[in-house]
Amino acid sequence: MERYVIIDLETTGHSPTENDKIIEVGMVIVDNDTIVDDYSTLFNPNKKIPPFISNLTGIRNEDVQNAPTFKEKAKKMIELCGNHYLIAHNVPFDLSFLNTELSNHGLNKLTNPVLDTVELARILYPQAPSYKLGQLAEYLGIFHESPHRALSDAYVTAKLFLKLKEKLNALPYETVTHLINLEKMLKSDLYALLEQRQQALAFSTTETKNIESFRGLAFKQIQNSKEKSLNLDMSFGDYLDSIYEWNGSMQKQMKNFEKRDGQREMSEDIFDAFQSHKHGLIEAETGTGKSLAYLITAIYEALRSNKRLVISTYTTQLQTQLLDEEIPLLQKLISIPFQAALLKGKHHYLSMEKFEHELTSSEQDNYGITLTKAMILVWITETETGDIDEIHLPSNGYFFYKKIASDTESYVDPTSPWFSKSYYQKARNKAQQANIIITNHALLCTDIFNDYQFLPSYDKAIIDEAHHFEDIVSRHYGLQLDYSNMQYNLNQIGTTDDGKWLNRIVEKCALGPNALSLEKWNEIFLRTKYEVDDLFRTLFQYVMDQRVNKKSVSDIGRIQYKIEEDQEASKAWQLIKEMANRLSFLLRDLIHILSFLDQQMDKQEVFDKYDKEDLKRHLQHLQNFIDHLESFFLLNASATHVKWVEMERHSFNNAIYLYSEPTEVAALLAQDFFDKKESIILTSATLTMRNSFSFIVNRLGLDSEKLITNKIISPFDYTNQVQLMVPNDFPDIKHGNLDDFIYSTCEAILSLAEITKGRMLVLFTSYNMLKRSYSLLREIMDLNQYVLIAQGISSGSRTRLKKNFQTFDKAILLGTSSFWEGVDIPGEDLSCLMIVRLPFQPPDHPVYEARANHIKKERKNAFFELALPNAVIRFKQGFGRLIRSKKDRGIVFVCDARIMKTRYGKFFIESIPNVPVSFQPTYELMNKADEWF
Predict the structure, then answer these.
(1) Which residues, 6+ apart, have CB-to-CB distance to 627 below 8 Å?
(2) Cα separation of 136 and 143, whole Å?
(3) What is the pTM of this model?
(4) Annotated binding residues for ATP, as ranges?
(5) Binding site listing
(6) Which residue pairs from 605-611 have beta carbons closer than 8 angstroms and sit at least 24 positions apart in sequence?
(7) Average pLDDT in the 829-853 region?
(8) What share of the chain is helix, strand, coil (3-state, %, to 5)?
(9) What is the C-alpha separation between 175 and 397, in angstroms, rounded?
(10) How far apart are the C-alpha atoms of 763 and 711, rounded to whole Å?
(11) What positions does the domain Helicase ATP-binding occupy (predicted)?
(12) Which residues pair with 482 in a beta bridge?
């Protein structure tokens, strides 16, 4: 059957069961891999088209007024569908609409075989950045003439299908065979296509290029780099001249080259610190080009000294960006070959051995796990790293991935045939041979606090986004324990008769559960699960019963409660401690039984290495739970640590997270890191307050005697590119006018949106205020005119929300927490940045409160030593979202008059670049903004 019918519908909404109707159909016919015909029509839905749909599709009520009804064209559509494959981008959506309409008109539902291009794209292009039709088309170079019109979307879906079919017909035999085994759990009727490919391969004598196979898995052959690095024989000055100066490699290689004096200055500062064996603090304002500046020096130093050098970033995404974008550019800029390697924590890498084992296990898979397995099967034929961050798994796929990550291997045997195929081992070997290792703060801290076992040895490092370093260090010295994780890990073990891991172990053993001393397991196990439930439920109620002023709300809306042993309600808290103690004893009983099982496993040949590895992993998890429970509930609180509880306000009574962190890390870092390393450079766009580094020096425990500092000024012309506006007539929140303040903020958003045609990013410090503003804006704004996108309300990740914001011509994006930094929206996509409140941490945030108390005990002012510097650095991060190039222009509108009225307000203004500041009534600011644009 070589004929395919591709269908796309435009509808009045998302649900046919709620009386949403089809307003347009587009159909494209593919025969023998060629588009041969098409059909499209509008339908009169006999109801109003919602404004959002008209905005999205361009189809208005007047367009469908005289259009035929669905019934008039139904037979024509049935005739076109015939008994051919039906293809759509999200088949369940289109098919449910068609079949509901057919059923409503007394016609037979379509029962054709189907292919879903969303599902197929996820499997066959696992590394695609998005599976929305428009973004997939862009990724695959398919021209999309009229997005969100049925016929255009159907044409694009047809072209996408032909690319998917081509990709499927390039898969190796082993991959196809495994996909056939998984096919029955997929939405798409793929069997015939897969079988066709399998048969073609069975009679083929040609091997698939660059693919090797082992134990039924086909994966990409990885060539080891043979290129050797050379020692440098030129001076640092000549080296920089050859890159930065006119007619240097940078000018030759980069389009729109602009000489940035600050970039060279930063390279020289880092080299000075390396030469003098000092640490360095360098603030490089936006536009400096700091990544290239520090990499250029790092590469020179690594080659000159013949010693590897570590670069650490805040996120794994920035790590990947450095390796995929900056390093290839530097290989063109620098004439001498060098080696750079990326290294992440072990859990980022797929274990091929574990995947092969799980792929053939008899466990019944749900749809998410089937899709995950299919995606990974295709991905391993393409990946060179095995780094799971390269692909976007379905949400429940990450639970399956936990079973097949490299950190599940309790012991890696170098004599195992899998050892040479381990992605993690390859990444480690590459790092051992590299001049530059690119890692992240999390792995760097894991390495520091585990006697430097995880990274190859180094003397010098550069820490980017260093304003986050203290928080990451604190987290690594602390603990986290949550209900979901405990129950998930217990459920992985299971009872002796529920089909989970322990049940499968018992069935392997001919002697039965009693001989393995497991007769008491089920009773203790079920009691343990009950006690976990009971502990977290009681803890939830305990926190809810506390006075409101003892609780705070996090920036993502969770309730937070700080544990202070001497102030807890004695009877209720004592009961919780007894419950934690009882749970610890039950977990010990489980460990005792599993340890006995461990001894039995060594005596019986029916158990394989995977059974033993799984057992060791389960034992480790149970021991970690005991350690964390005892540390949190049973050990006396230390003056140097803070403990707190977080919970979802409207969730299950046991959706609770327990945290503990040190209040200060300066002494720990000084002793374990800065005193042991020759030269550490810390850099960021935001390290100073009023040009002073004293805050960050104190927080990180740096010795000012062994320190080089510099602030690199931005090359941007902020005076002419930015206007900072502050209204002097907003209600003052201090006097209980929160509703009035939110109303004024929303009015200002709408007024500015008219002037800037949307293109606004609004930054909140409180999730509650964001939600209330969103609700009010939806009431008072014209939803036909603007698309309103809000973090935590509109679905999708931060990256997805940013992409959606850039897709629409007139959009307003409301963000909190993570939107204050790391979001680049260059050019005309962003013309106005609104900062609703100065970003002070809530004074009752557990970690902040503990740090503030620590400072007060030293007879210092916690506001000026901690709260203000943190807020200024955060403000600078937010301010930096607006201007990302020399061509950008925009307004920063700060609703919080404290920036002008208080004596500390000048700390904010004097910490950002010099820009014109207007402090006037709102209507005057709007007139000024209108004129300026």
Answers:
(1) none
(2) 11
(3) 0.88
(4) 284-291
(5) 284-291
(6) 606/508, 606/509, 606/510, 607/505, 607/508, 607/509, 610/354, 610/357, 611/505, 611/508
(7) 88
(8) 50, 15, 35
(9) 19
(10) 26
(11) 249-517, 271-496
(12) 657
